[in-house]
Design goal:
heterodimer, A: four-stranded antiparallel β-sheet, B: 0% helix, 46% strand, globular
């Protein structure tokens, strides 16, 4: 089966600019996650969707980060305005309610200069 | 915070078994032990998971102690491509609803 697709793979922006990341989960997976991974650390959950509803966004910096999952399939994560400390890899993952196995995309590496 | 403790790094010779330990002394009765690995510049990859019985698949074996307070991931014949960060995670139930909380993991370096 096709894996979790993310784009772009790399993005360089200046601070205070905005950026958006896109994720297409595995077909049929109801749960979608966005993680942030800073260099040298494990991934940290930003937001979890169940279909098109938010299950957990407690660690999402809502003053600058937003995410949506229209129609319960694709999702976008936006940062506006970006800060230097937002430089990280942004990982999208999806899982099946039936098996619980979680699959990750390759991530988008964001550099804020 | 992550509920597991892992050594920050380990070395292994190619062809030998790699045994990666994990302590999860506060694990609850309904929590599973999951292992993921992350090869450089890739997203985490599922390896194996278990509740209390030992598990084996084509990638690895998982040994969980009887009291469930620790476990060991075994890669029976490590190759250079097994060089990666390995994450041990405890996760409530076997459901897609529960999230994966990552720690810093163990950096495994497999050398020729």
């Amino acid at each position: 089966e096709a894996g979790v697709a993310q784009s772009p793979r790399y993005k360089i922006i200046e601070k205070r600019q905005s950026v958006a990341f896109w994720c297409n989960p595995i077909s049929g997976h109801a749960t979608l996650y966005w993680y942030q991974q800073i260099l040298g650390q494990g991934p940290k959950l930003l937001i979890q969707f169940q279909n098109n509803g938010v299950v957990d966004d407690s660690q999402l910096p809502k003053d600058r980060f937003s995410a949506e999952r229209l129609k319960g399939v694709d999702s976008t994560l936006k940062i506006q305005p970006a800060k230097l400390e937002d430089s990280a890899v942004y990982l999208c993952a999806s899982s099946s309610d039936r098996t619980g196995s979680t699959f990750f995309g390759q991530g988008t590496r964001l550099t804020v200069v | 915070d992550a509920k597991t403790t892992q050594p920050p790094s380990m070395d292994c010779a190619e062809g030998r078994a790699a045994n990666l330990p994990c302590n999860h002394s506060t694990i609850s009765g309904n929590e599973y032990v999951y292992w993921y690995r992350q090869i450089h510049s890739q997203g985490p990859q599922y390896i194996i998971h278990g509740l209390k019985n030992n598990e084996t698949n084509e990638m690895a074996s998982l040994i969980i102690t009887e009291d469930r307070k620790s476990s060991t991931l075994i890669l029976p014949h490590a190759t250079l491509r097994d060089t990666a960060v390995y994450y041990c995670i405890v996760r409530a139930e076997n459901s897609g609803y529960s999230t994966l909380t990552f720690g810093k993991g163990t950096m495994l370096l497999v050398s020729p």
